[in-house]
Amino acid sequence: MIYLDYNATAPADPEVIEAMKPYFNELYANPSSIHTPGQKAKQAVEHSRAILAQFLNTRVDEVYFTSGGTEADNLAIKGLAFSRNKRKKIIYSSIEHHAVMNTCKYMAKFGYEVIAVPVDKYGVVDLDFIRDKIDDNTLIVSIMHANNEVGTIEPIKEIAQIAHKYGAVFHTDAVQTVGKLRIDFKESGIDMLSLSGHKFYGPKGVGALIVKKGLRFDPLLHGGHQEKNHRAGTENVPGIVGLAKACELAQKEFPQEEKRLRQLRDKLWREIDSRIPEIQLNGHPETMLANTLNISVKYVEGESLILNLNAAGIYASTGSACSSGSLEPSYVLLAMGIPAEVAHSSLRFSLGRWTGQEDIDKVIEVLPGIVEKLRAMSPLYKK
Amino acid sequence: MEYSEKVMEHFMNPKNVGEIKDADGVGTCGNPVCGDLMTFYIKIEPKTDDLNAARIVDIRFKTFGCAAAIAVASMASEMVKGKTLMDVKNLSRNEVAEELDGLPPVKMHCSNLGVQAIQEAVKDYLKKLGRDDLADQIRGCLESKESE
Ligand SMILES: Cc1ncc(COP(=O)(O)O)c(C=O)c1O
Ligand code: FES
Description:
The structure holds two protein chains of two kinds.
Chain A: E1 2-3, H1 14-20, H2 22-25, H3 36-56, E2 63-66, H4 69-83, E3 89-93, H5 98-107, E4 113-117, H6 127-133, E5 138-142, H7 156-165, E6 169-173, H8 185-188, E7 192-196, E8 207-211, H9 226-229, H10 237-253, H11 256-275, E9 279-282, E10 292-297, H12 302-311, E11 314-315, H13 331-335, H14 340-343, E12 346-350, H15 357-377
Parallel strand pairs in A: 1-11, 3-4, 3-5, 5-6, 6-7
Antiparallel strand pairs in A: 2-8, 7-8, 9-10, 10-12
Chain B: H1 5-12, E1 25-30, E2 37-45, E3 55-64, H2 67-80, H3 85-90, H4 93-99, H5 108-128, H6 132-135
Antiparallel strand pairs in B: 1-2, 2-3
Helix pairs in contact in B: 1-2, 2-5, 4-5
The structure holds pyridoxal-5'-phosphate (PLP) and FE2/S2 (inorganic) cluster.
The site of FE2/S2 (inorganic) cluster has 11 residues of chain B, from helix 2 and helix 5.
């Protein structure tokens, strides 16, 4: 099996699983309990928090564990809105993950003006548009660090500066970059950052929101005193321990792994581009995640490509995993100005820790034949 | 997306793919939402305007479409081969979907597309014979609004 869908999710690293194991049935006590086993569990949570803080260069008390990226995004936007009600404008990008986009849109119900920032053909947000729309009434600017479908990396430092000029909070969904790129929270100007374990070899269902010290926000879940009253519910101790282990492993492989993936990805693009006519790269040619390759194979439809690859034991995706139940082409590609029929022809390969040279070679070998077969069937393709 | 084995079979090895250069009728339908497009080419014998006598003797298709669209086109082409134009007029999307052991609900329109494009080819044939009146009684492609 050749798994090339790491942006959708990654397998948990065996070391992560090993680290988690004792917390299911040996060190299973509730971190809120004051007895010795409870305190041991508490220590595990706090030790994990320290690892995350060190990994991202944040303070320990700036780390809030959540149930994943979606909750972290919701907590950032709603939590901020619910605690500060004077500012009534929310700015986000037109290529945000649904976790941010739908949360922002929902806030319109509560009287917020929500503004989607357009992107250029590479998927880079329009900074002038932000400068034009932002004002003293702006609560939050939420722009993702890198896009999950095309891999384009956004100029978040500049965006943070623009936001701060108006006293707005800058949030970034860094679900696709934590573990892939080195992030220095203090130095970056980010006020709130979302991350998710399962995108970088940690477990699913655990993530974190990093919130700059002093920034007030309300919880989404009310109940116990966990996470300093900002996220009630007994901590997912095994998940949190696994998340911390994933951070340690990522730290160790910087920056060689990025270099390795970039070489594989570049080779994949170079070779299929030379073997298959009329394909295009979607995303930024340079400022792009090293592991992501989004292409459009003109005149054939993405799903047909995926299922033919699937039959060959190669698992890729068309755009985001979440939208594969819908008929419309990727909103990310459409926002980049890519025509609908070209967007329908998109195919995403995302590489990861267990992707090897031989996997890439297999795709290079198999894909041209699949494309040829499907194009022979296509009324749009004229040789 | 869960597809039946039948769908996958027709999708991986579609029947009757291609074009007919001297086709008696050609029909194309598209769905504006999913962007899919299907074209059918048919040969008719005997070349009469009697819907109960004229039969489809050869059929080919091309499609820019999802897996369901390809499977539908392949299955529908098999189903109408040798059939009269009246049979084609009465063919429904459900019959094609049933022959494929069902389609996911969002993919029912793919079945529609297949049936409509074949009907459009029949309409084309009838119009060439000057029988626009008969052609008008056959469904063919729907208006974009309704085609969902
Ligand atoms: C950019 C981005 N944000 C948020 C999420 C949601 O994270 P989670 O699956 O942990 O809820 C994902 C992935 O699913 C993502 O790619
Ligand atoms: S999704 Fe539209 S024809 Fe299949």
